Amino acid sequence: MKRSVYTRPDKPLRIAVKARSDFAKVEIASTPEIIAIDKFTECHVTPPEVAARMVRYLGEVGDYLTLEPSAGTGSLSRALIESGHSPCELVQVERHTKLLAPLYQFGTVINRCFLEYSAEVRGKVEFARVIMNPPFSQVRRHIAAALDLMGPHGHLEAPTLVALVPVTFETVDMETLEHLTDDTFATARVRTKIIRIRTGATLHRDKTGSIDKWTH
After folding, report:
1. d(CA 39, CA 122)
2. What number of other Cβ atoms are within 10 A of residue 150's Cβ?
3. pLDDT over threshold 90, residue 134
4. Of 151, 164, 182, 206, which is the most buried if we count CB atoms within 10 A?
5. What is the pLDDT of residue 35?
6. Residue 102: per-residue pLDDT
7. Which backbone phi and psi does 150 adopt, to 5 degrees?
8. CB 46 within 8 A of CB 76
9. Which helix (H) or strand (E) holds 213?
10. CA–CA distance, 67 with 130 (Å, rounded to integer)
């Protein structure tokens, strides 16, 4: 057999390719940020649908200075902002530095233990609304500290607190709004409920009908 059968012809092997620039644009999906929750933070993330209902229980959207004393991963803060609440009227307290970064998009962030913060600013600041999912092991202390910071802040309505608490929690002037399902917090074997407290503030007017003062 001829040796030429096994050799490539001495000429370039090329294929003409038409240049194209009309490719469809491919959108690259962003990778969701993974937030690691240390068990010692007692951070039980409020499910979005529960957070949205808690915001509705607060009342109509308005210029209410609002406190989130255990901001955690920002679930309640996000629900507030998505409802139309202004970031300028939201104060978030969170002691764990690893959880702070995402919170700045929602409003003011204070990196402190809430119980220490409350003791420090009592009588110096007044929140018309509080929304919270406090550490279950210290729920009574945290709610008491939050109530100490509440006041009308120029509004006619009584100050309002909405909280997610264990079903065993009870206090005066508390209104139970709903009991949550047992699987609401998969990592915590605690049955929970949503409560609302309207502080016992009484509005006093002067002779002209203008607001004179609030008393508790």
Report:
1. 30
2. 23
3. yes
4. 164
5. 45
6. 94
7. -95, 145
8. yes
9. strand 211-215
10. 5
Model pLDDT for residues 63-83, shown as the tens digit of each residue: 999 999 999 999 999 999 999
User: Token match 């969170």: residue?
Assistant: 94
End-to-end CA distance of the chain: 111
Q: What is the C-alpha to C-alpha distance for residues 168 and 85, in angstroms, rounded to an integer? A: 31
Residue 47 gets the label, from left (phi > 0), alpha (psi -120 to 50) or beta, of beta
pTM for this model (two decimals): 0.74
The contacts of residue 141 (CB under 8 Å, 6+ apart) are 115
Pick the CATH number of 41-215 from 3.60.20.10, 3.40.50.150, 3.20.20.190, 3.40.50.300: 3.40.50.150
Report domain extents, the chain: 41-215
pLDDT of 89: 95
Q: At a CB cut-off of 8 Å and minimum separation 6, what does 101 contact?
A: none
Among 64, 174, 76, 79, which residue's Cα sits nearest to residue 94? 76
d(CA 182, CA 21): 56
Summarised one tens digit per residue, pLDDT across range 143-165 is 999 999 999 888 888 899 999 99
CA atoms within 13 A on the CB side of 13: 3
Q: By C-alpha distance, which of 83, 169, 68, 160 is closest to 179?
A: 169
Residues 214 and 202: their CA atoms lie apart, in Å, by 5
Across all residues in the chain, what is the average pLDDT?
83
Residue 205 bridge partners (DSSP): 211
